[in-house]
Design a protein that fits this description.
mainly beta; 20-stranded mixed β-sheet; globular; twelve-stranded parallel β-sheet; 2 helices
């Protein structure tokens, strides 16, 4: 028997089960109306909507868009919670399968671009779309489409066979996205024309087989991307435009075109962008840099590995003078420099294949500003040198050794002329 809102609230804190509203989950019956009724049973206080596990080859069959209940200003704070079961050593989430949908799976905008704020959650849910856009060009639907997300939580969510896995039009604030798997899509996460992304953590994502970009952020504040696997993206793995800071750590990139990570701004002076990249692995066979930073003012690139043959440079930094630290990076195995270079006259800070070396490569005229005022660490232990500070010296640049704390050194300054 279907439950009313009053009966749903008779037991304080009790979850609502979709099957109490006539949802079958047999993979044959269209469960759209019953599933929508389960969502609509909630009022502005929200609650938990439980979706029991079913056969993932069947899934809950949904042939229309599911619209999140709202009051015209906010989406009700509903936690959509599935189950995780173990199948041959794999954790399988509850599958909701959208069939023939041409617009959106879960619509958090009330059917249009209304400025609704969403602070609910998705947990243990496999949201399967109508088809692979690389195979079927008619697939244009979006898995989850929102206007604003604030303190949203997504855990153990799969978005597969959509044109875009998730699109947010306006802002994502202080959200936590963990263990999100996006595959066989055109774009994974799409920040829209302009979407303020601030205080957001993308943790343990796996984005693969994207005809477009894995994670696209177009405008924002502080973004954390940690322990993610991003593979086989045809328009770069991560693209960040006009952000304040990107903290990228422990991520693995493979088969990216044209870049694994591309960070840039077209509003210099308004955005003082900083990029911190720690312990990432770029295994990308490409003729373009694995990491491209354009008009980034502060950098800390430490302990990254660029293990593939790319025929050019691992990192390309262009634009005005950034400041920061570059150390402990391992260069491409074909001997290509870590940093981009355009001429032969240069200084070399160690060997690009030595993981203890901070820098290797040359400084073209338009990139000399890269190292001014910066500290580059290396492991010249035989000379007792801890690192080098770089300053202007006449028409060129001079690198002055910094003695290791336990050693004395009389090493001369290295100088590059142009």
């Amino acid at each position: 028997m279907a439950l009313t809102k009053a009966k749903n609230r008779m037991i304080d804190g009790a979850a609502v089960n979709v099957k109490d509203f006539g949802v079958t989950g047999d993979g044959v019956t269209d469960d759209t109306v019953a599933f929508q009724a389960a969502l609509d049973s909630f009022d502005s206080y929200g609650g938990t909507l439980f979706v029991p596990h079913n056969d993932n080859s069947v899934g809950y069959r949904i042939e229309g868009t599911l619209i999140w209940p709202n009051n015209g200003t906010i989406c009700y704070p509903i936690d959509l919670v599935g189950e995780q079961v173990t199948n041959q050593f794999q954790l399988i989430c509850t599958c909701i399968r959208f069939i023939g949908v041409t617009n959106t799976g879960f619509d958090l905008r009330n059917g249009d671009d209304s400025n609704l704020r969403f602070n609910g959650s998705f947990r243990n849910i496999y949201i399967r779309g109508p088809g692979d856009p690389a195979v079927d060009v008619s697939v244009t639907a979006i898995g989850i489409h929102a206007y604003d997300m604030k303190q949203t939580v997504m855990e153990n969510v799969q978005l597969i066979h959509w044109y875009s896995g998730m699109v947010v039009a306006n802002s994502v604030l202080y959200a936590k996205f963990e263990n999100v798997d996006i595959a066989n899509v055109h774009h994974g996460f799409n920040g829209g024309t302009y979407c303020l992304v601030n205080g957001v953590t993308f943790n343990k994502w796996r984005v693969t087989d994207c005809a477009g970009t894995g994670i696209w952020i177009n405008g924002g504040g502080n973004v954390n991307i940690t322990d993610c696997i991003i593979e086989h993206c045809d328009a770069s793995g991560i693209v960040c435009k006009n952000i304040v800071s990107l903290y990228l750590t422990g991520c693995y990139f493979e088969d990216m075109t044209p870049n694994g990570v591309y960070v840039y701004t077209d509003q210099q002076g308004y955005y003082n962008t900083s990029v911190t990249a720690l312990g990432n692995n770029f295994n990308a066979e490409t003729t373009n840099p694995s990491m491209k930073l354009d008009t980034v003012l502060n950098v800390a690139l430490i302990g990254n590995k660029f293990t593939a043959t790319n025929g050019t440079s691992a990192i390309d930094i262009v634009g005005p003078q950034p400041h920061g630290i570059i150390t402990g990076n391992e260069g491409p195995r074909d001997g290509s420099p870590i940093m981009a270079s355009e001429d032969a006259a240069s200084v070399t800070f160690g060997d690009a294949l030595n993981p203890h070396v901070g820098f290797s490569g040359s400084f073209p005229d338009n990139q000399q500003g890269l190292i001014k005022g910066s500290l580059y660490l290396n492991d010249d232990a035989d000379k007792g040198i801890f690192g080098w500070t770089v300053t202007e010296s006449g028409a060129g640049l001079a690198a002055t050794p910094i003695p290791a704390t336990t050693c004395n050194t009389s090493a001369a300054s290295k100088t590059v002329t142009t």
